[in-house]
TrEMBL record:
Localization: Cytoplasm
Listed cofactors: FAD; FMN
Keyword list, A-Z: Cobalamin, Cobalt, Cytoplasm, FAD, Flavoprotein, FMN, NADP, Oxidoreductase
Name of the protein this chain belongs to: Cyanocobalamin reductase / alkylcobalamin dealkylase
Top-level taxonomic group: Eukaryota
GO molecular function: cobalamin binding; cyanocobalamin reductase (cyanide-eliminating) (NADP+) activity; demethylase activity; FAD binding
Designated gene of the protein: Mmachc
Cellular compartments per GO CC: cytoplasm
EC number: 1.16.1.6, 2.5.1.151
InterPro entries: MMACHC
Family designation: Belongs to the MMACHC family.
The reaction(s) this protein catalyses: apo-[alkylcobalamin reductase] + methylcob(III)alamin + glutathione = S-methyl glutathione + cob(I)alamin-[alkylcobalamin reductase] + H(+); apo-[alkylcobalamin reductase] + adenosylcob(III)alamin + glutathione = S-adenosylglutathione + cob(I)alamin-[alkylcobalamin reductase] + H(+); apo-[alkylcobalamin reductase] + an R-cob(III)alamin + glutathione = cob(I)alamin-[alkylcobalamin reductase] + an S-substituted glutathione + H(+); 2 cob(II)alamin-[cyanocobalamin reductase] + 2 hydrogen cyanide + NADP(+) = 2 cyanocob(III)alamin + 2 apo-[cyanocobalamin reductase] + NADPH + H(+)
């Protein structure tokens, strides 16, 4: 429910919907690359003008909206920002309150070793570890679910030592991706997929066999 999200954030980040409004957090799993992105690129290569992943996600969510012709469905993508430059929604907070992935933050560590350093939090999925992405929020403004029970996310990094290791790896060594394997995972990105996401956005067209275009790219 939107109210679960708004309850843990400052008013500046609240979603402008009643508390009981139904919402879904959309994640992409490791298999998205082969099952969704590559087929999409092969089919739409002449129409790709910005980031292929963003366009692929947008295409699939448009199909979801078509499945509900009698319902109003609002979509907010993870890369969208407000005129104030704030994100339209805080993806990791949304994933946590939806029970999709646990958002580990500095406050989850009792003996804080970082002093005045800025420490960013990170979501870990109980099946995919850090090998997933939060892509969008689907909102159904006309559907109110007052009796929906909230499910807590799985606390899969449960020890103090592991939480410190996770936040250390994510904040200071995120490029090597070791934080993604903080738990034993069922599935991870393929080598091809790792190479794709490790490549600067403007150069990713080349990896997919596409000509680079001047456009707006997102991570």
């Amino acid at each position: 429910k939107v109210g679960w999200y708004n309850a843990v954030l400052q008013p500046a980040f609240h979603l402008p919907y009643p508390d009981d409004t139904l919402a879904f957090v959309v994640l992409s799993t490791p298999s998205m690359f082969d099952k969704a992105l590559k087929p999409f690129v092969n089919k739409e290569r002449l129409k790709l003008i910005r980031d292929p992943v963003d366009q692929c996600v947008s295409c699939h969510l448009s199909r979801v909206k078509e499945k509900f012709p009698d319902q109003k469905v609002d979509v907010i993508f993870d890369y969208e920002i407000l005129p104030s430059r704030k994100p339209k929604f805080l993806a990791q907070t949304a994933a946590h309150v939806a029970g999709a992935a646990y958002y580990y933050q500095r406050k989850d560590v009792k003996l804080d070793p970082w002093g005045k350093k800025k420490i960013y939090g990170v979501c870990i999925h109980p099946k995919y570890g850090g090998w997933f992405a939060i892509r969008a929020l689907l909102l159904f403004p006309d559907i109110q679910v007052p009796f929906l029970d909230q499910s807590a996310p799985v606390d899969c990094v449960s020890t103090e030592e592991k939480r410190i290791e996770l936040l250390e790896q994510f904040n200071f060594h995120w490029q090597d991706g070791h934080y993604r394997d903080i738990i034993e995972v069922k599935e991870r990105y393929s080598e091809e997929q790792k190479a794709y996401f490790a490549t600067p956005p403007a150069e990713r067209f080349r990896l997919l066999g596409l000509k680079s275009r001047e456009a707006h790219f997102t991570e």
